[in-house]
Structure formats: C-alpha cells, structure tokens
Design a protein that fits this description.
Elements (H helix, E strand, L loop, with lengths): L3 H15 L3 E5 L3 H5 L1 H9 L4 E7 L21 H5 L5 E4 L6 H13 L5 E7 H4 L26 H13 L3 E5 L1 H5 L3 H11 L3 E3 L24 H9 L2 E5 L5 H4 L11 E6 L2 H5 L7 E4 L2 H10 L10 H13 L17 H10 L6 E3 L5 H9 L8 E2 L10 H11 L5 E4 L2 H6 L4 H7 L3 E4 L1
Parallel strand pairs: 1-2, 2-4, 3-4, 5-6, 5-7, 7-8, 8-9, 10-11, 10-12, 12-13
Helix pairs in contact: 1-3, 1-17, 10-14, 15-16
C-alpha cells in the first residue's frame, strides 16, 4: 500500500474475508499510528488481525527511560493500542519472540476474536537466536484453552419455548460467520421452517430471494423486516450484540411480544441489555449450534402456515423499491434503484464491499440484494471514511482476484484515494461506484 492506514484496513478486511487471520508490517512511529484506525475496526468488529510494528533500538527507547522520545521517530505504540487489542507487547527478549507470536495468533483466532499487536525493536529484529531455545506458548498452561459447556438442561428449555411458539424467528449476526456455522444455521432454518432475520454483517448467509429470509431489522431497514420482528412470539438471537441501531434505542420494546433467547460468546454483551430474556447462553456458536442440532429430536413440528403467509405477504407488500423515488431533487437517479440495477447485473461470484458511512451505507446494506453465499465485507463498528478502497484491494487478492464491486462515497474516497495507484499497479478487477 501507499499509506499504512490502508495497510491496517487491508489486514482487517483480509481477516474478515478469509474468516481467519489478516496481517501487516509497519514501520516505527507514524507508520504504527497510521494503522491504528484499521486495528480499531478489527477490535470493534471482532476480526482476527496481526499488526507487527518496528521500534527503535532498546537502548534508545525513551519510554524505558521515562522520556517521551529518545530514539528516532519513537512512539510508545503498545500503550496506545492496548485498549483496542486482545494482546499487545513490545518484545524486549529475542528468546521470547516465538512465545509472543504464538500467543498473539492464538488469542486473535480463539474466543471472541480480535486484533493483536507485536512491537519489535530494531536490535531485537536483528538478533541471532537458536530456534530450539525459543520459549513456546501453551494455552492450556495459562488457562486459555477452557471453554464453557453448553447446558443440556437449558437446551431442553429452549426447545420447550420454541415448541410453544406460533410465530418464531431466528435472528443471526456475524458470530454465525465467525464460527463458520452458516451451513448449520441454514440446515436448522430449513428443517424447522423458521423465518430468518440477519444483521448487516451476516448478510449473504441467506440470499435476498430466499423465501425464509426476511431481511435486516433495525432503524435503517426495510419495513417488512421490522414487521416480522415485532410480530414474532419467539426470537432466537445468535451471534449478535444487538447494537442500538437494531434495538432502535428502545431495548424494552425490541420484539416486545416475543420470548427471547440470546446466545453470545461474551457474557458482558448480554448483561448490558435492558431486555427481559427468557434464557441466555454465554457460548461460542461453534459449540452451541452443533449442540443444539444434536438435540433436534426435541423439536416438535408445529402448524405455522398463517405465520409463514404473514411473513411472505409483508415482504411482498413492502419491498424497498416502493420507498424509492424516480428522481431526487438534483435530477439524479435514486440510490435504491441504482442498487437494485447493480444487484440484477452481478452474481454470486462477485465480491461485494459495502460502505459503512454516509448515504452509501443505506444503499449498500439495505438496497443491494446479495445472492446466497455471495461474499460481503463491511466495517460496521468504526464506520471510518476511507475504508472501502483498501478493503476492496485485500478482498480482491484474498478471493484470487475475482471481480470485486465497491460502493464508496465521494468524501470517503478522498481519505485513501492514493490506493487507486495500487489497484492500477496490480491490475485488480475492481468496479468502483461513487
């Protein structure tokens, strides 16, 4: 890249696209601080990413002497990024490099995933080591390999609540993708014939055209998605933290007629909500969903023809294109109509990168119709301007240079416009819409 901010964003988006680990190398001082935006995005969206920065020689580190700066372009980056990483360390002992790298990668890719940061002084980079003497990392010895057990008794209670419902809905978030449970969720929805809602970051698990898919609810949303949510009598919430845009800043009235069951990898995300849950599970979905499906003999099929008819009817009654206008007051085409036209001309093999800020956010997240299984990458937590171009670059490379579609705002484009030169240099098949 031509700027480290773009590298930091590329690392996050590569991790998001591959559902594994993105990484980038940064020089000291401003090289490291430039990448903080990408790191913050990875932290907020729980994306595994490894940031490795250079640092001045240990003997010149003012931070070790109580000084603001001593070495050339020195910035104490670890205190800066510690609140937005799962692990951040300056490596002072060359024999600990293996330990720190192994621990960083483990933490980035296990539990609630996220970014990690390794800062390596120049003299440590150049140190000679005997590989057999390098200290190893063992997660079990540090109590990091343990995971909560999914309660069979509570699973039975969950199925009792589901069996009693007449109007059930499953609401899935990015946790389903992070735990690689897309196929399992589809199997569950199809076998139980339960309508599905998704958050924006879980778009693509179901295609917009599929009969069980009812869209993304919340403040910026198609009407039918909110009608389905607010008329449900049971909601199974899987892998979403229920941010205020989804609850409409009114948690007590979120799916107010429904008994709600929430499953999240982090107990604190459940505890923060003022929602009367019937049941909660603090489990990783890669453990919870297989455990739930293993008990699916407890499910008693119900006659829910009226509910399915309602969901299908409301989706037909309130399509998003009805909200669009033929022309706005500048005489230009409506953004929703544009997104519909773009959707009709793209396919499941196209990678789609959606903007998370400004007017393009609604167009790319609400109006663009994803096909089932189509790759969709977006930064929702930080919503930074300048995100889309670097994100598209990394996604294009990660996909094997498949055609990559990008929606970006005119102001946001300026923040990393220099990366157009990178696209040209590598002749990447990007289609950029401003």
């Amino acid at each position: 890249n031509l700027n480290e901010q773009a590298s930091g964003i590329c690392a996050e988006s590569y991790g998001q696209y591959t559902n594994h680990l993105g990484a980038c190398l940064l020089t000291t001082g401003p090289g490291a601080t430039n990448a903080v935006t990408g790191c913050a995005g990875a932290w907020l969206d729980s994306t595994p990413a490894l940031y490795i920065s250079g640092q001045c020689k240990t003997e010149q580190m003012g931070q070790l002497k109580g000084l603001r700066i001593y070495g050339a372009q020195e910035v104490a980056i670890v205190p800066v990024v510690k609140p937005i990483t799962k692990y951040a360390v300056t490596v002072l002992d060359p024999l600990k490099i293996r330990y720190h790298l192994e621990k960083a990668v483990y933490l980035a890719t296990h539990g609630r995933r996220g970014p990690v940061w390794i800062d390596v002084p120049l003299d440590v980079q150049g140190a000679h080591v005997e590989e057999q003497l390098l200290a190893e990392f063992d997660p079990a010895s540090e109590g990091l390999a343990e995971k909560p057990v999914v309660s069979d008794a509570e699973l039975r209670t969950l199925y009792e609540l589901l069996n009693q419902s007449k109007r059930p809905v499953i609401l899935i978030g990015h946790g389903v993708i992070a735990s690689a449970q897309q196929k399992a969720i589809r199997k569950m929805a199809e076998e139980f014939q339960i309508p599905v809602l998704t958050t924006w970051r879980a778009k693509g698990v179901f295609g917009d055209e599929e009969p069980l898919y009812m869209g993304c609810p919340g403040i910026p949303a198609p009407r039918y998605a909110n009608y389905v949510l607010q008329n449900a009598d049971f909601v199974l919430i899987l892998g979403t933290r229920l941010n205020p845009a989804i609850t409409a800043f009114d948690e007590p009235h979120f799916a107010f007629m429904a008994k709600k069951v929430m499953v999240d990898i982090e107990q604190a995300e459940i505890d923060k909500l003022s929602i009367p849950f019937a049941l909660t599970f603090a489990n990783d979905l890669k453990d919870f969903i297989p455990a739930m499906l293993a008990q699916r003999s407890l499910y008693k099929p119900q006659e829910r023809a009226d509910w399915h008819a309602y969901c299908t009817g409301i989706k037909v009654k309130y399509p998003l294109e009805k909200e669009a206008q033929p022309y706005d007051n500048e005489g230009k085409t409506d953004g929703y109509r544009f997104a519909k036209a773009l959707s009709d001309r793209s396919g499941v093999s196209d990678v789609f990168v959606g903007s998370s800020s400004g007017r393009t956010c609604g167009i790319s997240h609400m109006a663009y119709e994803l096909k089932q299984g189509q790759d969709f990458v977006t930064s929702m937590g930080i919503g930074s301007m300048g995100w889309c171009i670097p994100s598209a670059i990394s996604c294009c490379f990660a996909s094997g240079k498949r055609r990559t579609l990008v929606l970006e705002g005119d102001g946001s484009l300026q923040s990393n416009i220099q990366e157009l030169a990178v696209i040209n240099q590598y002749q990447l098949p990007l289609k950029l819409f401003i």
